[in-house]
Amino acid sequence: MSEAPDHAVHHPVHPVDERLPPAQLAAFGLQHVLAMYAGAVAVPLIVGGSLGLPPDDLAYLITADLLICGVATLLQCVGWWRLGVRLPIMQGCTFAAVTPMVLIGQDGGLPAIYGAVIVTGLAIILLAPLFGRLLRFFPPLVTGTVILVIGLSLLPVAGEWSAGGVGADDFGDPGNIALAAGVLAAVLLLQRYAPPFVARVAVLAGIVLGTLVAIPLGFTDFDAVGDADWAGISTPFHFGAPEFQLGAVLSLLVVGLVTMTETTGDFIAVGELTGREVTPRRLADGLRADGVSTLLGGVFNTFPYTAFAQNVGLVGMTRVRSRWVVATAGGILVVLGLLPKLGAVVAAIPAPVLGGAGLVMFGTVAASGIRTLGAVDFDDSRNLTIVAVSVAVGMLPVGVPEIYAEFPDWFQTVMNSGISAACVTALALNLLFHHLPSRGRSGNGALLAGGGPLGNGLGGVGQGPQDAQQDR
Questions:
Q1: What is the Cα gyration radius of the chain?
Q2: What separation in angstroms does the CA of 137 have from each of 18, 246, 391, 407, 452?
Q3: How far apart are CA 104 and CA 252, in angstroms?
Q4: How many helices (H) and strands (E) does the chain have?
Q5: 48 and which of 53, 126, 229, 432 could share a cystine (Cβ 3.0–4.6 Å)?
Q6: Is the pLDDT of residue 226 over 90?
Q7: What DSSP character marks residue 232?
C-alpha cells in the first residue's frame, strides 16, 4: 500500500509538464498573448503596408497570422510525433524575414512571397536533424551570451512602445512615457506586495490596469472593434497560387538559417529557465515544428515562424514553467484568429502600456543571460574576449540600424539581427579559442568554456558518454 506514494515522491511531475487549474491556465495564457500580440501583428502590418494592400487585405493577413501563431504554438508546446520541443515556447512571425519579403513582394506580389515561404518551411524540416547534432557547440559561454543579447536587443522595442509606438504622431510625448512608467511601477508593486497568484500575473494585471487608466485619458481607440467581423477564417492560397521564383527562394532560405539559429538560442534559454535540458533530439523536434509551421504559413497566407523571445522573459519573470500555460495561449490565439472582433479588442491596448510591461520582461531575459554566464570561468581571458566581442557585434545593428546598409542582401539578412549576429560570432570565437587545436591549452579550461570533452581533430567536437547517450 505504501509503494504508490513512494513512487510518486521519487517521480514528481516536472514543472514543465504541470497542469494548472483552468483559471490559472487562462490568466497565465492571456498574459503570454498580451506580451507577444504587438509583435505578432507587426509583421503582416509592415509587409502588407509596404505592398500597399487595402485595409480589408491587411485585416485578413492579421487574422491569418494569429490563427497560425496559435496552431504553431500548440504544435511546439503540446507536440505530436517528432514535432515540437514540448517547452513553454510562444511562436510568431520572424522579423528577420520582413525586409526580404517586402523586396520579393514588390517584384512578384504575395504569391511569390508564399512560394518562397513554402520552400523555406520544407528546408527547415529537412535541416532540423543536422542542427540538432550541433547542440554540442552551444555551451554556457555561447548560450549565456546569446540570451544576454536577446534581452538587450529587445529593450529598444520596449522603449519604442513606451514612447507611443513607431510612427505614432505623439511619439515621445511625456504622457506616453508617464503611462509606461505607471505600468512598470504597477508591475513591480504587484510583484512585491500582492498575494502569490496575483504576483505571478503581475504583467497581465499591470496591462489591464494601464489600459483602464488609458481609456479616460484618450490613449485608446476602439473604432476598429466596431468595424471588425465577428467571425472569419483564413483559406488556403487566398491571394492566388504560390509562385516559385529562384531569387526569392534563395533569399528566404538564408532567413531560414538565421531563424533556426535564433530559435536554437531561444530553446536553450527556456531550457535553462525551466530546468529541462534541451537535448539534440528535442532541439531537432522543435526546429522541425518550426518548419511545419512555416510551411502552413505559406499555405494559409502568412509568413515564416519562430520562437518569440519576448515570452522567454515572461517565463523567467513569472517562474511559471508549465508548457500547458503557453499551449493555452496558443488556443487563445486560434480563437482570436477565428474571431476578428476579439482580436481587435486586444489590438486596442495602447503601445505605452505594453512598453512598461516589456521593460520588465525583456530586462529579465538579459538578466537570465548574465546568470547563465555565471557558470563560465572568466579567469580565462579568452572567455572574457568571446563574450565582449560577441555582445559588441550583436549590439551594433541595434544601436546603428543602418550600419550594414551598403552590404549585400544576404549579409544584411544575417547581421541586421543582433541575435543572429551575436550567435554566429560567439559560435565562431568559441570554436577558434576552445575547439581548434593549439599548443599549451588546458583540457580543464576547455571543458569549462566549451561544455564538452576534447575530441579528435577539432577539440570539443567529440562526445562524452552523456552526449552519446542523449543522441541515441
A1: 22
A2: 30, 32, 18, 28, 9
A3: 9
A4: 20, 2
A5: 53
A6: no
A7: -
> Counting Cβ atoms within 10 Å, is residue 45 exposed (0-12), middle (13-18) or buried (19+)?
middle
Residue whose cell numbers read 506514494: 5
Which of 399, 375, 455, 413 minimizes the C-alpha distance to 143?
A: 375
* Residue found under cell 482580436: 343
- For 93, the enclosing helix (H) or strand (E) is strand 91-93
From CA 183, how far away is CA 355, in angstroms rounded? 8
Taking the domains of the chain in order of start, what are their residue ranges? 17-453
Q: Which of 33-42, 163-172, 391-400 has the lowest mean pLDDT?
A: 33-42
Task: Report the run of H or E that residue 454 belongs to, with start and end.
Answer: none
Q: Which of 242, 346, 347, 245 is closest to 303 using CA atoms?
A: 242
Under DSSP, the state recorded for 80 is: B
Q: Retrieve residue 471's grid coordinates.
A: 543522441
For residue 148, what are the CA distances in angstroms to 124, 141, 285, 374, 379? 26, 11, 25, 12, 20
Q: What DSSP line would sit under 241-281, residue for residue?
A: S----HHHHHHHHHHHHHHHHHHHHHHHHHHHHHT----HH
Q: CA-based angle 263:255:324, to the nearest 5?
A: 30
Residues 271 and 292: their CA atoms lie apart, in Å, by 22
Q: Nearest to residue 95, comparing CAs of 201, 24, 166, 10?
A: 166
Residue 291 confidence class, pLDDT cut points 50, 70, 90: very high
- Residues constituting the chain: 472
One-letter amino acid of 430? N
Phi, psi values for residue 92, rounded to 5°: -160, 170
Query: To the nearest 10°, the Cα dihedral for 50, 56, 57, 63?
Result: 110
Averaged pLDDT score across all residues of the chain: 78
Q: What DSSP assignment string belongs to 117-179? A: HHHHHHHHHHHHHHHHHGGGG--HHHHHHHHHHHHHHHHHHHHHHHTT-TT-TTTT-HHHHHH
Looking at the whole model, is its pTM more than 0.85? no
Question: Distance (Å, rounded) from C-alpha 154 to C-alpha 163?
Answer: 15
* Amino acid in position 428: A
pLDDT band at 290 (very low <50, low <70, confident <90, very high): very high
Cell readout for 454 is 576534447
Residue 144 phi/psi, 5-degree rounding, is: -60, -40
Distance (Å, rounded) from C-alpha 150 to C-alpha 310?
9
pLDDT at 342 over 70: no
**Amino acid occupying residue 310:** Q
Residue 102: Cβ-neighbour burial (10 angstroms; 0-12, 13-18, 19+): middle
For residue 369, give the amino acid letter: G
Q: Where are the alpha helices (DSSP H) in 374-407?
A: 381-399
SS3 380: coil
